[in-house]
């Protein structure tokens, strides 16, 4: 498997990655909701504008079991393999590691022989994960200095509880190497994980334990401020907890972490999905403040008033649609932050050149709980809203899908999400426009979730050189 | 007197180790880029060379001790077995690293990192064949200079070994330091990191091949 020169999709710096050739394929996690007999799948989408199949699924890799709830996935190796202190540049970006969030089963998918028709080469069963790492519900993964790092929401005891945390998988044998933490301090709830390689710092965020989320968003837990609201900073190499920042009890669901890609920068962005006082969503900036990390809220996105008759039961009493910012993505030049408002059906684009003073420069509306905004190439209203967002390496193309998580989809879109994937064009000046040629409607029953682009994208790789 | 080719080979191995990005020049470049100044590249070089030298020193001391208590007939086959065994191991397990040092490290951290990298790659073991040819003659030379004297023999022989061993470590380290300094500064100043994408050949394979080749060569030599 070792190559003679580094994988051509590895880049020393984000600047070099931005000069990479455009992606031709996208891989999409597809959740099956149609019948309990049909498994989830990994879809391969043609994203080459010169191809006759542009904007369509060209193949579908069905998982071997039903009920996985495919969610987030990623590559076995990426640009961090060029890092000077842990170089292993002759592994290949070849395997997609595709976890089932509900089943705790992890699929190793080989894309090398035919990238348009990938194959499953290994499956890590939940029992192996529990035995080796004492975790379950694998969530986010990143290729990093010691192998593949995966966050997990639950413990390995099978009781739906915590603590969740991070475990390691070998990037060649795909053996689960064990729990990452040596000292977790007060960390208990888990969600996202990423790092500042230049600062030797890992960061983790919080959602909830499996029993807090798997049956849907629990209003009692939410109103009791029991969901995650803290951010944890760790010593990446000593694997020790260093610092906790609490956003305050009203900020619930501290989810996606998007550190600056330039390793000399020490800041990043995170979204808090809902403010209990006014249903707003917020974006937070973390940054160095002396010898410590600090966080401050930099963006507030308010809820929009709405006729209760048009709201799902969970929202009727509030007479408003929350923006529900459930995903964000940062372009490789660290200049543009994309913000998915899954509730109001809006994709926002901010200029974060000065991360302390973001400027809204673009917006597109598609779907939404009340808005139902239409796509120029699709018939009828759309439901769901901008959710998992991915930005191309060169920053010119933005892809997203509209499903969050099955039980949560059903609460906010009780009629059942009809799933789609779209592409936006991002202008250098800050605008956003819909690519009318690209509207992908998933088959009935399938819902699109996370997207990964061939050769890497804006949330797949980490860099050690500026 | 040891032959000149042995010293040249030692310098060549120092250069070979130095040119491998994984042995340290790339780390120095990364630290220079992180701080945005050439001084950071230069500052990182001494601890990297020192860590490498310490790893080689451990091998030299170990070999000297073994040599003092082992029958000469056994030394060569044992060395061959170690070299080929390590080469084979690195072919199979060459890509693994347990990270212990990060980008925010200082002199001690860089020294430790370099020591661990050199040791894991078997940098010191690669010079074993040269030690075979250099330490025993150094002992004989020390003995011949002092003349016969049974009660002094062991000490004098050990002194000869130590002097030769120290010279081996210093020469190897100097060659390695010169090469990491040249390559690191050239990449930092002019070439740029683009070279990593095409120019970073698989040193793990070359290294494993060198270990196996050295072992095989030693086996075939009379």
Automatic annotation (TrEMBL), chain A:
Instruction: Provide the alphabetized UniProt keywords.
Output: Plasmid
**A Pfam match:** SBP56
Enumerate the InterPro entries for this protein.
Se-bd
Q: Which domain of life is it from?
A: Bacteria
Q: Which GO terms describe its molecular function?
A: selenium binding
Is Transmembrane helix among this UniProt entry's keywords? Answer: no
Q: Which family does it belong to?
A: Belongs to the selenium-binding protein family.
Protein name, as recorded = Selenium-binding protein
Q: Give the species this sequence originates from.
A: Azospirillum brasilense
Automatic annotation (TrEMBL), chain B:
Parts of the chain that traverse the membrane = 6-33, 45-68, 74-92, 112-136, 156-188, 200-221
**Domain of life, per lineage:** Bacteria
Keywords for the protein's UniProt record, in alphabetical order: Membrane, Plasmid, Transmembrane, Transmembrane helix
According to UniProt, the name of this protein is Uncharacterized protein
Entry keyword Membrane: yes
Q: Which species is the source of this protein?
A: Azospirillum brasilense
